[in-house]
Amino acid sequence: MVTGLKSRILPDVQRRTLEELTEDLDLSSGDTRSKKSAFWTMLVLSGVIATAGVLSDSTATVIGAMIIAPLATPIMGIALGVAKTTPGAAGRSGRFVLGGAAIVVLTGALFSLGLPESFDLLGNSQISGRTSPGILDLIAAIATGFAGAVAMARRDVAAVLPGVAIAISLVPPLAVVGVCLGQGAVALALGALLLFVSNLLALVLAGSLVFAVLGYGAEDGEASTPALSRRKAYLTIGVLLVVIGVPLVGNTVGAYLVSEWTARTQSAAEQWVSAVQGASISGVDFQSSTLYIEVQTPDDIPPVDDLLADLDGQIPNGIPVVVTTTLGQRIEAGTVGTTR
After folding, report:
1. What is the CATH architecture of 2-225?
2. How many angstroms separate the CA atoms of 152 and 21, rounded?
3. Partner of 321 for a Cys bridge, out of 47, 246, 328, 333, CB 3.0 to 4.6 A?
4. Strand 290-296 versus strand 330-335 pairing type
5. How far apart (Å, rounded) are the C-alpha atoms in residues 333 and 308?
6. Consecutive 10-residue averages of pLDDT for the chain (340 residues)
7. What pTM value is reported for the model?
8. CATH assignment of 257-335, among 2.40.128, 3.30.110, 3.40.50, 3.30.70
9. 3-class state of residue 118 by DSSP
């Protein structure tokens, strides 16, 4: 069954040799001078483009940086090194990944020095979308790793590689890490770094599994470590993915709960202002564990104690509530579950 599946995924006529894969993915083999020159040049340029796209909140620019970014090459090189069980192969590619990541982070930090003090990090969708990754990001990364490894192993599907590059987020999160660190937002920087690390581990795990299953072992005459080393590598990567997955699951659950609480608050608040003709709720937002409710009203609003009573049991107790109105009022309503 496994053999039949292998032949379907990678027909012999389309199979690339291990030598060809090594030439493409190992930057320390073959014409290393040209490979390294191309890698570092394109990496610096992609870092600059990604940072500029992030700061300008331009999706098209960020996608352009993702297409030309070469960081996926040494990452898949790590995967091939794990599959080959060749001593030092994964480590050589890993050094390129670490060096490349450091350069992109530094680029983002340097760009951030020119930002005005009023720059709102979370108001930028390119930043906010990469500082709170969820479990779906990890699932997408694993699927992308499988797709990338299969595309590298086959001669006839190279056209999908740009799509794979767009699907996985590598350089943009690192640019966000640099920008956030430059602005002193360490928590946001850690969130973006979590996204990068989870994508890195997912790519390595999925890629190494594909290369191993497809039969890319050590080359004839090349020293290799026992298969036990490969299993240890898989176990280590798997454990790291589980560790990374815990905060990702936490973020996913947290986002769901906030969405649910926001919907409940919206419903309760609309019922609360229904007593005022022409009044409506124009916004409900959680910021730093505080609930902000914006009311569009032509007249005075009902007592805020009534709103707190309506929210009791709908959202967790202890959440501070702030109500703002189009009449210029800002009311510290109190906290849910307490009476004033």
Report:
1. Up-down Bundle (1.20)
2. 7
3. 333
4. unpaired
5. 8
6. 66 81 86 92 95 94 90 90 78 92 96 88 88 88 87 76 73 95 92 92 87 69 53 77 85 88 91 88 84 89 88 87 86 74
7. 0.79
8. 3.30.70
9. coil
